[in-house]
Amino acid sequence: MFIREEQPGDRGQVRKVNEAAFGRTDEADLIDRLRTAGDILLSLVAELDSAESDNAEAGSVVVGHILFSRMFVEAARGSVPAVSLAPMSVLPDHQNHGVGSRLVSEGLAQLRVRGECIVIVLGHRHFYPRFGFSQEMARSLASPFPPDAYMALELCNGALEGVRGAVRYSAAFGL
Questions:
Q1: Global pTM exceeds 0.85
Q2: Helix 11-22 and helix 26-37, axial crossing angle in degrees, nearest 10
Q3: How far apart are CA 128 and CA 103, in angstroms?
Q4: What is the pLDDT along the chain (175 residues), one digit of tens a residue?
Q5: What's the CA dihedral at 148, 82, 90, 151 to 10 degrees?
Q6: Which of 72, 116, 144, 157 could disulfide-link 111, Cβ–Cβ 3.0 to 4.6 Å?
Q7: Closest to 115 in 3D by CA, of 84, 83, 142, 140
Q8: Is there a contact between 9 and 29 (Cβ–Cβ < 8 Å)?
Q9: Cα→Cα distances 31→34, 48, 76, 116, Å
């Protein structure tokens, strides 16, 4: 398995992965809206050679996907740029094999290199803390989501220090 940036030819497979992982089209539709809005910062896929994936077709197959998009925290000092991690998906047959962890780790590493400092996720409270996400860091960020699943991560030390305000996602989220 290797992780790489999504290419235009991957869009059909990315859609299938998201639909299969979530059992609905909502997340795949969100990705399409974020593409149209131009708010995607980073989109990565986890790819396996067909021999590794039990796929009868020749070539490779996308088994996981992660998307990072621009968002802001509206704080007293102005808009503070942040990154939304959403969605992250893995084909059901490949879940619990480290695919999601590899996607998150690689995505965060690339965001660091690009100079991003704050990442926010709504997700499983037992999965994301292993990467440094915490509910405590998100406590001063007003959001429409339940606080037990809403977490933030500083990619730059102190990036959230003194930052208090409401989060503003891309309009593509429909919030």
A1: yes
A2: 140
A3: 12
A4: 999 999 999 999 999 999 999 999 999 999 999 999 999 999 999 999 766 555 445 578 999 999 999 999 999 888 999 999 999 999 999 999 999 999 999 999 999 999 999 999 999 889 999 999 999 999 999 998 888 899 999 999 999 999 999 999 999 998 7
A5: -10
A6: 116
A7: 83
A8: no
A9: 5, 22, 30, 20
Residue appearing with tokens 């992982």: 21
- Tokens 């991690």, residue? 85
What letter represents residue 78's amino acid? Answer: G
- In this structure, what token pair is assigned to residue 111? 């965001």
